[in-house]
Amino acid sequence: MSRRIAKATLLVPLLSACVLASPAPAAERVVTLDPKASAVSFTLGTTLHEVHGSMRLTGGALRFDPATGTASGEISVDARSAETGNARRDRKMHGSILESERYPAIVFRPQRVLGRVEESGRSDVKLGGTMSLHGGDHPMTLPVALTVEGGHLRAELRFEVPYVEWGMEDPSFLILRAEKLVVVTVRAEGRLGTVDAPVDPESR
């Protein structure tokens, strides 16, 4: 056997071992939120007091590639479920600000996860995407605090929505002035799994 053939023969098992030892590509992850275990609240400051309200999360499913951060899916909220505990104020909110019969859904569509989502414990990441609200699409990057335990996921998001800048009516009237930003807090629960093994958000 020539020296060249002998070297080639030795390289074959070495290359095979390297290929086998290379880490497999990370599987895409899927997050499925449980609307029953999740809550959306909002706060609007005025000259007299803070207005506190809530909305109902109707669905949330997203998938992302841990290697590239590319994400897809959507998180949806029912605008018609918004309430502040004051019937007169709520009628104005639905009729002339949210116009919820015309625009019944508020939807965030993620496009990128910035940061590493740990398989267990806490992760602080950012979710980049588009917020569809009141007939307009607005790019947003949302800070997300995640905690994962045994596949069970808890997430908290807190962000500001410049509703007047986005074309909604300013509720200020005479001496009652309202801030131009609404602070939104989302506390959600669900499951973290892989695309090949989807999870039931109700399983705990």
- DSSP strand tally: 9
What is the percent of helical residues? 10-25%
Shape: elongated
- Please indicate the percent range of residues in DSSP E strands (runs of 2 or more): over 45%
Order of SSEs, N→C?
HEEEEHEEEEE
Mean pLDDT: 87
What is shown here, in short?
The protein is mainly β.
What can you tell me about this protein's structure?
The chain is mainly beta. 15% of the residues lie in helices and 49% in strands. It has two helices and nine strands. The chain has helices spanning 3-21, 87-97, and strands spanning 29-33, 39-45, 50-64, 71-83, 105-114, 121-133, 136-149, 152-161, 182-194. Strands 1, 2, 3, 4, 5, 6, 7, 8 and 9 form a nine-stranded antiparallel β-sheet that branches. Strand 2 and strand 3 (50-64) form a beta hairpin. The longest helix has 19 residues, at 3-21. The chain is elongated, with a radius of gyration of 24 Å. Mean pLDDT is 87; it is low at 14-24.
